[in-house]
């Protein structure tokens, strides 16, 4: 019987020459080598993956460790240490950006911050705690309830819930300014329709009263907050419509028209206050720059109340313009500029969270520019006749000059010799 195809193939392999056996062995070796290389690559990939996981875990641990160290300072530190730790926690949240880690920072910090706000009344410490609470809620807050929780904590700094264990103290102008600014900053993130009216009844009346205070920073913060409330468009929730209600509803027997009249009356009063502040002559010893800032702000607020136009502003960041066209955006920008201080430009250039907040796309930086850019101090150092760089440059130039003179002497010597022959 004839051999089938498989048998013929096996026979052919058996009767192959030594060279063929060598070839088969070589092929087998190459296949083995490829498997070995593939295995090495797979091991390397696994190592890289494990390294990435380890780095991520280290980053997470470092973030958590830093947070707990800062919170320990908030719990047990001096006023100065509490202020610095609070600022650091806010910076940590801004650096982390959106996500679970930012929410964890908020949840872990809320109780220590709340306790610290109730202990003592040192203005710088309280202001730093309020700023910190505002920033970590702005970044890590997941819903309206969490944001309103922080806003209520802020409000209670100035309007504490009184009981037998609490002694009311009059807040300083600096604390009032910090509270109103932080509260307004969080209000920019809120949907006015979802606000709980029972929390904010009579807040417009309180903010209106602040416009009559002697401290200019208090008046400016209150003016911005009022403009924002009217921009949000839920004035009823901030005025309580009719006085005497505890849950935001109108009193029994009252008419809707009464609530409307109440709001219109409040708005009319505020417009008159704003008009006066926009043209304030200033008092003795008042800084002209601050006075001009107040006038310009309240002119913008007056125009908004009367004509509905929000201010438009633009600032340059790395050659690109960051523009704002609403009270909400302007309040966010001014708050973060103040909080970040000298780091604001760098954050705006590199922080993706802030890019999303302001819908800002910075110019891509040329790495070579950064690599070879030197400071003015470094330039002066290099130009100094005593600098190491300058001395080395002088030595190199002298050496080149000597070599050049030597070549010239040799050249002329050869020429002279040729003439003699």
Automatic annotation (TrEMBL):
Q: What is this protein called?
A: Interferon-related developmental regulator N-terminal domain-containing protein
Q: Give the record's family classification.
A: Belongs to the IFRD family.
Domain Interferon-related developmental regulator C-terminal span(s) in chain numbering: 351-404
| Species this protein is from | Fagus sylvatica
Q: What is the lineage of its organism?
A: Eukaryota, Viridiplantae, Streptophyta, Embryophyta, Tracheophyta
Q: Where is this region: Disordered?
A: 1-42, 239-259
Q: Where is the Interferon-related developmental regulator N-terminal domain?
A: 60-306
Where do Low complexity bias regions lie?
Answer: 23-38
Pfam families in the record: IFRD, IFRD_C
